[in-house]
Design brief:
Number of strands: 15
Helix content: 25-40%
Order of helices and strands: EEEHEHEEEEHEHEHEHHEEEHHHE
CATH architecture of one domain: 3-Layer(aba) Sandwich
Largest sheet: 11 strands, mixed
CATH topology of one domain: UDP-N-acetylmuramoyl-L-alanine:D-glutamate ligase
Catalytic activity: beta-D-fructose 1-phosphate + ATP = beta-D-fructose 1,6-bisphosphate + ADP + H(+)
CATH class of one domain: Alpha Beta
Bound molecules: adenosine-5'-diphosphate, 1,6-di-O-phosphono-beta-D-fructofuranose
Pfam families: PfkB
Family: Belongs to the carbohydrate kinase PfkB family.
InterPro entries: 1-PFruKinase, Carboh/pur_kinase_PfkB_CS, PfkB_dom, Ribokinase-like, Tagatose/fructose_Pkinase
Keywords: ATP-binding, Kinase, Nucleotide-binding, Transferase
Number of helices: 10
Radius of gyration: 18 Å
CATH superfamily of one domain: Ribokinase
């Protein structure tokens, strides 16, 4: 199965590690570092660490593309990003070093017009076809309009490509409003993103389950809702289940959702049953949480974590 990820708005994640985050006060940072990232880049990095060949595309600013090129080359990822004049955005991540929790400040990114969008679409079409799987992930440049993922999904599905979508706000809403032939095969909102889509708060697990089932009824085959330290919910035709994270040392939560998506993709690649898919996805997230950047431990360690993950069926 050929795997490709799309990141239309990548980012350099600049993490500032603090003893504790106290809004409104002066902080002295413990350390600071930068990782080339963005949702599809992070997903591809985890898939490559797991040992799967993967291609990436999207749009990079040519003025600071070097860290991306270095990272992708080091992980053996096929770099098919379209480069345009300007700089890729830098996102700020304020890390509370005691808990591993981060406060994210995600900036708007590079805007680009129809000719760049068309160049990326052409790369995506070139990289996909029957039997391949595409991950469309992250925020969209404003100029593209909120239905950009819905349009790409419809085209990819016509070409026999499965689509995993990790989007939020109007882009997620537009994708879920597409007709049956244009719906993604899988989505991974977090609780907040699902609340935005459902237009109501989802305080309890039962509320989350109801909203996830609404997405499934709209025609999405696999709905995975990530719930931070509470694990994740999986709803598919085989049933619904909740997976609980193992005890995890949290170095940084940045990219935990992306690692979960990568685990889902690796599970779909291997045609796993729903419980094993859930274990694989949570093991990827737990493996990534123990380190900074989009890096997984070795396969044996990830498999050992997966074996420990508790999965509860929901009747
Ligand atoms: N503090 C945490 N402790 C243990 N596991 C966590 C923690 N935060 C995230 N995870 C794991 O990572 C997954 C994705 O995290 P989440 O924060 O829900 O995603 P996102 O980054 O997309 O908001 C969760 O489903 C869970 O398995
Ligand atoms: O495209 P968006 O939604 O602005 O998100 C980009 C940010 O998300 C990340 O991919 C991390 O995502 P998660 O923590 O949800 O896995 C960062 O690398 C990046 O700064």
């Amino acid at each position: 199965m050929r795997l490709v990820t799309l990141t239309l708005n990548p980012a350099i994640d600049q993490t500032v590690a603090l003893d504790a985050l106290n809004p409104g006060s002066v902080h002295r940072a413990r350390s600071v570092w930068a990782d080339a990232g963005g949702k599809g880049v992070n997903v591809a990095c985890c898939l490559a660490d797991w040992g799967l060949p993967v291609s990436v595309t999207g749009v990079l600013g040519q003025d600071n593309a070097a860290p991306f090129a270095q990272l992708l080359a080091a992980k053996g990822i096929d770099d098919r990003f379209v480069r345009i004049p300007g700089e890729t955005r830098t996102n700020l991540k304020l890390l509370d070093a005691a808990s591993g929790d981060t406060t994210d400040i995600n900036l708007p990114g590079l805007e680009f017009g129809p000719s760049t969008a068309e160049a990326v679409r052409a790369v995506l079409v070139d990289l996909t076809g029957p039997g391949s799987l595409a991950v469309l992930a992250g925020s969209l440049p404003r100029l593209l309009g909120p239905d950009a993922y819905a349009r790409l999904t419809a085209e990819l599905k016509r070409r026999g490509t499965r689509v995993v979508l990790d989007a939020s706000g109007p882009a997620l809403a537009a994708a879920l409003a597409a007709g049956r032939d244009g719906l993604p095969d899988a989505i991974k909102p977090n609780r907040h993103e699902l609340e935005e889509w459902a237009k109501r708060p989802l305080p309890t697990f039962a509320d989350v389950l109801d909203a996830a089932r609404e997405c499934q009824r709209a025609g999405v085959a696999l709905v995975c809702v990530s719930l931070g330290a509470e694990g994740a919910l999986f709803v598919a035709s085989e049933g619904a289940l909740r997976a609980l994270p193992p005890p995890t040392r949290v170095a940084s939560t940045v990219g935990a959702g992306d690692a979960l998506v990568a685990g889902l993709v690796a599970g779909l690649h291997d045609d796993l049953s729903l419980p094993d898919l859930a274990r694989r996805a949570l093991a990827f997230a737990a493996g990534k949480l123990s380190r900074t950047g989009a890096n997984l431990p070795g396969r044996a360690e990830v498999e050992a974590i997966a074996a420990e993950i508790c999965v509860e069926e929901i009747s």
